[in-house]
Amino acid sequence: MNGGRSTPKLPAAGDRSAGNELVVNGYSTGWLKRGFPWVYPAEIVQGRADPGTVVRLRGEGGTALGVGIADRGWISVRRFRRDDGPVDAALIRSRVEAARRRRLSIEPATTAWRLVNAENDELPGIRVDVWGGHLVVTLDSPSLRNLVDPLIAACDEAIGNADSVWLAERRDPRDIERKSIPVTALRGRVEDVTVTELGLNYEVRPSLGKDAGLFTDMRTNREWMAPHWENSRVLNLFAHTGAFSVSARANGAAEVVSVDLSDGYLARARRNFELNGLDAGELLAEDAFKALDRFRRQGRTFDRIVVDPPGYSHSDGGTWQGEKEWPRLTGACLRVLAPGGWLIAASNLGSQSPKQFGGALSEGADRTGRELRLLHEGTPGVDHPAALHFPESRYLKFWVLEAS
Questions:
Q1: pLDDT number for residue 174
Q2: Around Cβ 10, how many Cβ atoms within 10 Å?
Q3: Which residues form the domain of 144?
Q4: Whether 246 contacts 276, CB under 8 Å
Q5: Looking at residue 2, what is its pLDDT?
């Protein structure tokens, strides 16, 4: 664990003296008082602690600011509570129980959802995804590994014992230690699992961790779009495993074209069509810009274009760098979007504000002499809550725009 060094044990329940004390500056104090759950390295003015150590936080005037777990990297402390109580199994259980209550409105027939959404469920750096009877626990840092056992026990209590449990890491590029551990099976083993969302079946692979194969934060957006696919010609760019393509075909799309660089993703998309007894249409393993340019030259147009790119990718056609490429991508899409058609644009870049996103889309529209009108702004569902004291949680932009 953690480069071969053992990680300090959590203090026993009720042991308020365990852990070091760190003093933070006034800027950090202000944010912590407003509920922000992180402390950055430059904000610590006194004290130090090894990763995984439970620490008490104090302001420079001695103000108690809660208890967290120390780390080494772009985040120095993740705060787990605002008082001086222990970070123990009882705390973890109470947070998981509260998270489960927030999700009671998810229909029982939906078997793919997120049980714990990190900072937004007061368990910073920890995500738990439910794939049928299987769980994937994803950590943002190895400093949190000592919480895994009480976390799994709490999840078992909240939703029943899982058939398999997998541990993954989601390391931030800004971290000092960027190498993630392989996804490991903590209980049971399983390969492909069929889950259900909004009456449709999808195959996921828990052993792939965060890339299991279905983005559950898009479920409510797929639900909103369902009545708007009828008789339309659909182009799904950066299609991944084809969830939007499957939903479009199941809801009456006349034509569906799915484009992704990865043959592997498209093979999984084909399997998702098969699971639902649907015609897969065209599955094109190709760079999105090359496909759009070919469609333009062919005079081929679409009524609905879904664009949900990754934050960063590289191909023979060039490098996609998040917000920098949105004007170019928007323009290329609009050149093959039929008059009155819809551009369904999604960005998961937390660093890109809605204003910046809108500006990038407008710039792309200007290049083609077309106008865009926002018809709908989508949000994730109740299993992806966004705490108002944690601005980073409001990362997703899902805009449905009509093009003149």
A1: 75
A2: 23
A3: 89-195
A4: yes
A5: 34
Mean pLDDT per 10-residue section of the chain, whose length is 404 residues: 34 44 97 97 96 96 96 95 96 98 94 97 98 96 96 97 94 70 92 96 95 96 98 98 98 98 96 98 96 97 96 59 84 97 93 89 95 96 94 90 95
pLDDT at 300: 97
Helix axes 326-334, 288-298, angle to 10 degrees: 30
- Of 51, 65, 82, give the one whose Cα is nearest residue 22: 65
Report the C-alpha gap between 211 and 202 in whole angstroms: 13
Other beta carbons less than 10 A from residue 382's beta carbon? 16
Write the DSSP assignment of 94-128 as a string of letters. Answer: HHHHHHHHHTTTS-TT--EEEEEEGGGGT-TTEEE
Helix axes 354-368, 326-334, angle to 10 degrees: 40
Q: Give the CATH number, domain containing residue 167.
A: 3.30.750.80
User: Is residue 10 in a domain?
Assistant: no
User: What's the full length of the chain, in residues?
Assistant: 404
pTM over 0.70: yes
Whole-angstrom distance, CA of residue 169 vs CA of residue 143: 11
Same domain for 250 and 107: no
- Do 39 and 77 meet the contact criterion of CB atoms below 8 Å apart? yes
Tokens of 257: 């074209």
Domain count, the chain: 3
> 78 has which bridge partners?
38, 69
Tokens found for residue 227: 């009545």
Q: Report the number of secondary-structure helices (H) and strands (E) in the chain.
A: 9, 22
- Report CA-CA distances (Å) from 4 to 1, 7, 24, 142: 5, 9, 29, 12
Distance CA 330, CA 339 (A): 15
The tokens for 385 are 């809550």
**Same domain? 285 vs 388:** yes
As given in the structure block, the two tokens for residue 339 are 């008059």
Asked if 318 and 279 touch (Cβ cutoff 8 Å), the reply is no
**So what's the pLDDT on residue 313?**
58
Supply 172's token pair: 């931030």
The predicted structure's pLDDT at residue 315: 54
Three-state DSSP at 342 gives strand
Q: Which residues pair with 374 in a beta bridge?
A: 401
Q: Which of 241, 247, 243 is nearest to 228 (CA)?
A: 247
User: Which ranges of 252-388 does DSSP label H, i.e. alpha helix?
Assistant: 263-275, 288-298, 326-334, 354-368
Q: Which tokens sit at 89?
A: 């199994």
